[in-house]
Amino acid sequence: MKKILIVHAHPEAQSLTSALKDVAVTTLRARGHDVQVSDLYAMGWKAGADADDFTDITNPDCLRYVAESRHAFASGTQSPEIAAEQQKLLWADAVLFTFPLWWFGMPAILKGWFDRVFAFGFAYGVGQHGGERWGDRYGEGVMAGRRAMVILPIGGRAPHYSDRGVNGSLDDILWPITHGTLFYPGFDVLPAFPVYQSDRMDDERWQQVKVDLIDRLDTLFDAEPIAFRTQNGGHYDGQQRLKPGLGGGEGGTRIHLVQPGDPVETVPRPARRAAS
């Protein structure tokens, strides 16, 4: 049995996004897994990061959010709802994020969840910094040993999000999320599960989408994650630039994916951090 957290961001319980979340909950529980859901709209989650996130402000005259986040995490003076979400993340073996693609990104309420929950000392500002090492990030960190996957309804058509599509490739659009937000604190990130033309869904297609999603859920702990290069695995130099000879034949963000024939990364597998 595995433990799965679903972080859900859609204001309508009858939406396609919510239906996909429900399929995930039902399927995973039927497989014997333990599932928790953070339904952000139902929770009334506060999206804005502000002074109310801390119960002990060190500088009431000028809010320096990063500094206050660091102090609050270290001293146990974060707001209770932030600490609760962090404990859910530490509890989980895998985290699913269910949200619609809005304006090439996530809904504001989910962005606010990351802004507040991924605190200094928890998801960033972790590990030793010195020499060529820039902390425990990009493959290391608090979320190491856990898996993450995005389940993503999209209004547009699949060709619009292809390598030559007018909207740009979906992998590039999701890069700030998959690489910059999830891989950064150590998640093994699985390829996203997009559902295109989400506002044009008939019953026949919905039945196929459910089958496809269940197939993906059944391989949640077996599928190969996206082959992002680890920061401290030897592929980057002291300025955190990809070393010469690596990434050949690729362009854009794809140069940061491990390619056949690349040297084996040397980053050790960090110990998984458990919930307190």
UniProtKB/TrEMBL annotation:
Residues 232-276 are annotated as: Disordered. Residues 2-208 form the Flavodoxin-like fold domain. Keywords: Oxidoreductase. It holds the Pfam family Flavodoxin_2. InterPro entries: Flavodoxin_fold, Flavoprotein-like_sf, NAD(P)H_dehydrogenase_qn. Transmembrane segments: none annotated. Belongs to the NAD(P)H dehydrogenase (quinone) family. This is NAD(P)H dehydrogenase. It comes from Thalassospira marina.
